[in-house]
Every structure is written in structure tokens, then in C-alpha cells.
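dumping this here before i forget
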Amino acid sequence: MAINSATAYLDNAATTAMVPEAVLAMSQQLSKVGNASSLHAAGRSARKVVEESREAIAAAVGAAPSEVIFTASGTEANNLALKGFYWDRISQGRNVIVTSPIEHHAVLAPAHWLVEHEGAELIELPVSSAGVTDLDFLQKLVAERGSEIALISVMHSNNETGVIQPVGEIVKIAGDIPVHCDAVQSFSKVPLSYKALGLFAMTISAHKVGGPLGIGALILRRAVEIPPLLHGGGQERDIRSGTLNAPSIVAFAAAVDAHLYDSKKVAQLRDDFEAGVLKARPDAVINGKTSPRLPGISNITFPGTQSDSLLLLMDSEKVSCSTGAACTAGVHRPSHVLMAMGLSDVVAQSSLRFSFGSTSTQADVDYTLSVLPRVIERGLAAHAVGRS
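structure:
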């Protein structure tokens, strides 16, 4: 009996494969010794490659090199931004944090922590059924309570639906109120310029763009100083202490420079996949389809199923996808993103996210579509049994 060896990795929004250029750069740097803060030759050599990498990343994101603050992850960068801006402005009587209910938990969790431990007031912007933040609500809020707002934090694109947010308009409405943007999903996939958007701060991460795990960055205006989360040697403008991770930083820059992500190709794969899904399951619903979206993310509701069961069935067919953010995988609860868009908890628990990347192929699409009908049928049957 022949064994099916086909697989399809469609979870690139969770993490991507390291590109060869990043693997090589990291391997070469790992073979070298030297702390980038040391003054001897080995230290100066490490500092040189770190600063060259900083320049490459800054150029790619439309920032000055001095505005790039390296962190250990996008999550750390988000925490640094939210807590830092809040702590910096609470003395001015600004205790309100404004965000959206569709943010990644790396933004929502520190915001709620500030509410519980620091006395912050959290206001969440409503989103439409298409997954877009309500600008009219924000405009009214700023007009009425702008002097109380410490920070506005809205993602550039949603990690579950791929819906792109009107960040430029948000910055205009905010005026002199600091705006932070989690751009982890958007970086290198769609046009993105920190300077052009006029942001105070922006978060990016390496492992979403073909770089290694464990390295990210907060892009922060040079004139802005915020209190640090970590206290130590005073690295990174005294905002993020800790020995600089030169091998990961070099690999991050190498992945950015390689820029193997072809937006048109990825969008075509997604569109072909969605067309195939709707042909096989006309009752399926593509969430956020009417809004501008990232090229590679497709969030689909399959009525009458249960997403956790579908995920396991897809995995048994060697298709890797997700029920939502990988950071909350294993927690059986409906997607907060889909519920914020107006879906019921039952419908929100009937959806899967498929995310395509630079390594995705037409063969991935074809194989996934070939196994999807039986996965859905088995999912419907399992859900029916569970309800009986």
C-alpha cells in the first residue's frame, strides 16, 4: 500500500522557514566570538556587523538606524512600547490606552496588565464586520478625551484575517498623541514605511520574514525616551539592556535583504485556494474578504464544524494550518478577532486560518484542496455526534 508523502505547510503567519541567506549569516556569526559592547578587536568586529544589520533593517522599514532598538521578540517590543509610553505619560495625567479588540495578545495582554496593576483605563475601538477599525469613533474619542490618552496602539494588519488597518488615517486623527503599530505581519509583505506613516513606534519580528526566532525590534523615534522594561548595561539607547544577539541580528538583516517574498505570487496562491474552497464548499465564508488584506492570509469559516477538530483532521492529512494566533494555540476558545467582527462564538469556533508564504507552492494549494472535502465531511460528522 502506497504511503502518501505529500505535505503542505500553510501556517506562515505563525512562523516562516529561515531563508538560506539567514541560515548562512547566522552560522558564520555563531563561529565568531565577541561582545558588541566590548572595546577590543573582537568586540568591535561584532559591533560592526550589528550596526551594518541595523542599517539594513532601518532602510527596509523606512527609519533611521538610530531608531531601531533590538529586542528578543515582537512580544517584548510591544510590551516595551505600551508600558513605556504609559509610564512616561502617566505623570501628565494621561492614563488612557486606546487599542482595538482585534489586536494580537502581545498588545492586549500588556494593555490589560496596565489596567489591573497600574490603574490604566483601556478603550477599545470598535471594528466593522469587515474587520476594519472605526475611524469615526476614534475621531470623536480624541476630540473629547485626547488630553487623557497616553498611547494609541493599532496593528498594521491582522494576524488572523490579514485585514489591513488604516494606520495612516489613525495617525492623522491622533495628532500629537503617540501612535504605536504592531507591524509584525505586514513587514516585508506589503509596502510599509515607518517614516511615511508618521508613527512614534512600530514593532517588527524576524521569524515572520524568514529570519530566526528570538529576535525582533521596536522602531522608536530618536527624540523619544521611554522607561525600560529591563535594567542593566544600558544597551540600545538605555531602553533595552542586555548583550546584543549578534548572530540573530545578522540573520534578521540577511533575511530582510534577501526579500524572497513575492507578493503577487503569494496573493495568487491564496486566491486560487479560496476559489477552490468555495467550489468545494459553497457555504464556506472567507472572513475579511471585502477589505484590503495581506497577500497570504485566508481565514475561512466552515459552518457546522468545530475548528479544533478540523485542525486535527487537517494535521492528520499532513496539512499545517491554524485556528488563529499560534501564541494561543491549545486554548479552546473562540477567536476574539472574529467575535469582534460580529461573529457568534459558535461561528468563530468554526474557522481555520491558512497562511501562505515565500516557500508556498501551487502543489501546496492543490494538495490541500484535494484533502479538504473529506476533512470537512469528517468534521461535520464529528460535530453532529458531539451535539447529539
